Amino acid sequence: MNTQTQRSSVTSPGTGVRAGSLAPDPGAARRQVWYEVASGASGLFLALFMWGHMFLVGSILFGAKGFDWVAATLEEYFIAQPTVIAVLVLFLIHAVMASRKIPAQLKERKAILRLGRDLRSNTKNAPAMLAGNDRFQPHLESVLWIWQVRTGMIILVLASFHLLLITTDVMHATFAGEQGIEAARSMGRVQDGLWVVYAILVICVEFHASVGLYRLAVKWGFGARLGRETLHRIERVLLWLFLGLGVVVLFVLAGWLRPPLAFLLTG
What we know:
This protein is mainly α. It has a single domain (30-261), classed as Up-down Bundle (3 helical TM bundles of succinate and fumarate reductases). Helices cover 74% and strands 0% of the residues. The chain has nine helices and no strands. The chain has helices at 3-11, 26-57, 64-76, 80-98, 106-124, 127-130, 140-176, 183-220, 228-253. The protein is globular. Residues 1-15 and 128-136 have low confidence and may be disordered.
């Protein structure tokens, strides 16, 4: 290698470095902060929406009459239409921002699989865990991050399908002067085999949302006074609460369980 080649290799700028200088580029650092803000803010709104959405879909527990009344009200007062568009935009923003952390190459994905196995083995064999003190779980944050990445990849595929389906229903019905979301149509889809898709989606979404909010609170210090242990307990309560509700709702939509609150709207 000649002197000129050596000089060019030393002075060639890398990521986040100004051309002709070894000093970090403040602009690149600011962009990374804004990427994190956009990812966190969009994730926060999507998580809150999903929990609200769970309660709305949960109107099926009151029977088809309750579900259709909620859906008709949202569409009649043009609440559903802009909400669908807003959620679609937020979903795309969050997917783009969060995908920066998803391993793109096969080599990277194999590495994250190995990391997951090593962390699981180290956690199981940790002295505190062997002594029966399961309150101390080493590498918990890393394990949660790995599973958040995995569930995020699944959500990206399945939620895109669901959003496309719902957007088509709502927009077509708006221009046709009909009701887009109906109990009979929703239950028919689930009972025709889509219960598998929605079962996977419910598990992944509830885990991803609860863990995402936990990690968001830890990252930005929102729950500093509570401490990580308390925040983790809150995360688990939210996870099992909404996961349990989602399973019951799915069972009703699939026709495996009669609407338990339908008697409240009879007569």
